[in-house]
């Protein structure tokens, strides 16, 4: 269970996901190509049945369970819970998703709509994690971790296979980074196929647990704060077994972007590519548009999800102010 996944595990995951959570579109972005000076592609994981890539890892993990388990539980910033709820429903299993109060209501509603039970409590992902562990003890549920699990990493890694099969010439992959299941899986697959490829993780600059851990040389805790990239919140776990080491060994660099840069990138994706996506999805665009990252060849980023509060999204893209916890993010219309 604690063993790091390999390319073979990612290929096996692909067979599990076939016809259920694979083959999302990879589309060119003329605007990002113009801004970056290189061929720039968007992998549209927002087209998954649950609106986010997390279905891949969740399905791979839930499908691997033996028949007869009492049900599954997880902690989640929203999208993993949705993936677990969807996968559990496919298998006719009970699912209980534990979330902190920071998780947007739209995400909670989406999980309930799939038939899962939601446990809301605590102010951080770590507290949600404690509740999930308690349910394992008390109710015999099987925990599906959001990122630090070989089956989950292998599931997310199938994105790396699809990217390089579609475009073997890709030179750089820009991967939104939180717990690192996505980045670890994608980097594992991509570097197994094309060792010279550059894989860059991107996080928001406030509460970037993986970046702080990589800098410290061991998993550390950071304070969790509200962000436009809410899906990137949460720690990596002080007892992290897999994703810390994988990200340390496989990521070429990690770039941090500000809330203002995320806002600008959400607007760019909306007005220039006509796509509605979460803040977490656009950090790769933000790294380029802010000038923090330069490209020297064809690149792709993963548009990871679209599970949004649409009232807030509308405010963001129309340039109105939004509150992030105790902070006010001033509005700014696109192109001004
Ligand atoms: C979970 C998530 C991420 C980050 O994935 P990790 O495996 O935790 O690094 C990025 N974007 C969205 C939309 C997510 O839900």
Automatic annotation (TrEMBL):
InterPro entries in the cross-refs:
Ectoine_EutB, Ser/Thr_Dehydratase, TrpB-like_PALP, TrpB-like_PALP_sf
Domain of life of the native organism? Bacteria
Q: Which Gene3D superfamilies match?
A: 3.40.50.1100
Q: Which UniProt keywords apply?
A: Lyase, Pyridoxal phosphate
Q: Which residues form the Tryptophan synthase beta chain-like PALP domain?
A: 23-303
Cofactor(s) it depends on: pyridoxal 5'-phosphate
Q: Which PANTHER family does this entry report, sorted A to Z?
A: L-THREONINE DEHYDRATASE CATABOLIC TDCB (PTHR48078:SF6), THREONINE DEHYDRATASE, MITOCHONDRIAL-RELATED (PTHR48078)
Question: What name has this protein been given in UniProt?
Answer: Hydroxyectoine utilization dehydratase EutB
Q: Which organism is it from?
A: Sinisalibacter lacisalsi
């Amino acid at each position: 269970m604690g063993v790091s996944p390999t390319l073979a595990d990612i290929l096996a995951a692909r067979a599990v996901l076939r016809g259920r959570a694979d083959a999302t579109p990879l589309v060119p972005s003329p605007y990002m190509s113009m801004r970056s000076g290189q061929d720039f592609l968007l992998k549209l994981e927002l087209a998954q049945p649950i609106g986010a890539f997390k279905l891949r890892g969740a399905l791979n993990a839930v499908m691997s369970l033996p028949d007869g388990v009492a049900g599954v539980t997880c902690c989640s910033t929203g999208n993993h819970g949705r993936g677990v709820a969807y996968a559990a429903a496919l298998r006719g299993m009970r699912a209980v998703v534990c979330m902190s109060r920071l998780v947007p209501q739209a995400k909670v509603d989406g999980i309930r709509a799939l038939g899962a039970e939601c446990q809301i409590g605590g102010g951080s992902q770590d507290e949600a994690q404690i509740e999930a562990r308690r349910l394992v003890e008390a109710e015999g549920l099987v925990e599906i971790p959001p990122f630090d699990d070989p089956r989950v990493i292998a599931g997310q890694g199938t994105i790396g296979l699809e990217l390089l099969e579609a475009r073997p010439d890709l030179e750089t992959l820009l991967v939104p980074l939180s717990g690192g299941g996505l980045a670890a899986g994608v980097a594992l697959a991509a570097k197994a196929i094309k060792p010279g490829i550059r894989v860059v993780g991107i996080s928001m600059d406030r509460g970037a647990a993986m970046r702080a851990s990589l800098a410290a040389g061991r998993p550390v805790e950071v304070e969790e704060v509200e962000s436009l990239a809410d899906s990137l919140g949460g720690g990596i776990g002080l007892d992290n077994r897999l994703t810390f080491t994988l990200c340390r060994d496989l990521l070429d660099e990690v770039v941090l972007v500000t809330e203002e840069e995320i806002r600008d990138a959400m607007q760019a994706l909306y007005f220039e590519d006509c796509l509605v996506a979460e803040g977490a999805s656009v950090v790769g665009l933000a790294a380029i548009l802010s000038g923090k990252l330069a490209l020297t060849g064809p690149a792709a980023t993963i548009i990871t999800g679209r599970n949004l509060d649409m009232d807030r999204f509308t405010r963001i893209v129309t340039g109105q102010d939004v509150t992030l916890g105790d902070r006010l993010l001033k509005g700014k219309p696109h192109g001004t």
